[in-house]
Amino acid sequence: MTLEVAHINKAFGGRQVLRDLSFSLGGGEAMALLGANGAGKTTLLRIVTLLIAPDSGSVLFDGHPMVQADLSRVGYLPEERGLYRHMRAMEQAVYLCRLKGMSRADAERSLHSWFARLGMEGWERRQAASLSKGMQQRLQLAVAVAHNPSLLILDEPFSGFDEQNADMLKTLIGELRNEGTAILLSTHNTQAALDLCGKTTRL
User: Fold this and answer.
1) Is the pTM of this model over 0.85?
2) Are residues 201 and 33 in contact, defined by beta-carbon separation less than 8 angstroms?
3) How far is residue 137's CA from residue 89's CA, in Å, rounded to a whole number?
4) Domain that holds residue 49
5) What is the dihedral of CA 2, 43, 15, 38, to 10 degrees?
6) Handedness of CA 165, 169, 172, 174 (dihedral sign)
7) Which stretches of the chain are DSSP H helices?
8) Rounded to whole angstroms, how far apart are CA atoms 56 and 45?
9) Total domains present in the chain
């Protein structure tokens, strides 16, 4: 898998948010986007995931302009977390995975594996409203990786995580990178970026 971002420009209301931004990312690599609030990190991730379009420039996925069908190979954990508070954890995770095109059987099989890998055993029947913020983030992370994406995009993944959960996430990112997944993350945590990522881009 290769991701190429080439000469991206984006402005909102006359304010230039992204200016001539370019980089490339391959399988087994991790890149961190660094910058203050408002620097354009989330804007770039939304462009990569086709939620918004750039004013100019291109995003290439395996050498071709990225299209909606490519998103089946992308996992995305947005900064704006959101769960249905009164749905049970497994029921909700399966529902979200099926929206991505997974069958119920495949979703359940993968999610049971990820619940175990993320230390979420016994959560299956708990309502989201009863989960702590860190537990909710683990649930959404399981959904983001359940379809075995080639590219995993994480927007401020350490936000709201305590030290234990942050360490868990760092370990997982390292494992996924070693398994060949390309990781693109935005973070305020410069040390985590340096520890985890062989590439950084400052916006």
Assistant:
1) yes
2) yes
3) 11
4) 2-202
5) -120
6) negative
7) 41-48, 89-99, 104-117, 133-145, 163-178, 190-196
8) 15
9) 1
DSSP 127: B
* Residue 88: DSSP 8-state: B
Provide the Cα torsion 187, 190, 193, 195; round to 10°: -150
**CATH classification at residue 133:** 3.40.50.300
pLDDT digits (tens, 9 = 90+) for 13-57: 989 999 999 999 999 999 999 988 888 999 999 999 999 999 999
- Burial of 48 from C-beta contacts in 10 A (0-12 / 13-18 / 19+): buried
Provide Rg for the chain, Cα atoms.
17
Using a 10 angstrom Cβ sphere, with 0-12 exposed, 13-18 middle and 19 or more buried, the burial of residue 91 is middle
DSSP 28: T
How many other CB atoms are found less than 10 A from the CB of residue 149?
20
